Amino acid sequence: MLDRIQTFFQSLTSGDTSRDFPPDDLRVAIAALCFQVMEADGTVSKVERERLRELLQEHYDLSSGKLDALMDAGQEAGKEAVDYYRFTTDIRRHLNEQERVELIGILWDIVYADGERNEMEDNVIWRIAELLGVSVRDRVLQRQQVASHKHLEGHDEADADAI
Fold this sequence. Notes:
Blueprint: H1 2-12, H2 26-39, H3 46-60, H4 64-80, H5 85-94, H6 97-112, H7 119-132, H8 136-162
Helix pairs in contact: 2-3, 2-4, 2-5, 2-6, 2-7, 3-6, 6-7, 6-8
Pfam family, one: TerB
Protein name: Co-chaperone DjlA N-terminal domain-containing protein
Organism: Agrobacterium cavarae
């Protein structure tokens, strides 16, 4: 009888991604902040989602199924959050200063993925950086580096078309 009850409850949660990534998982906090940055301008473009997927894959080397589960868990956590504090608190506990600066660079990378940057995205990253203890200087440097890199990529493609 007890086995049947356990089987029943396991079947209810078999499609639940939270088993793979509990809410307090650092990866979920990072993915949630990324989704909140993507949603800041009111639209989440396909290219932004793909860039987030690439970045998460680069950093965590997950199987496709696990990567989908992380993206889902991050998006859900981001929707449920009332502020950034929950995520930034976990991140501050687990990442050193340089890693937090790099995270700000990742957020800028996602902003520039669609080729556009707006003041709402700037504001979200500013607030997150403040909560993470990332200085204004480091935040701006990360933005400039990503913008410069994206600008150079655009020129490389344009130059290749001209040849």
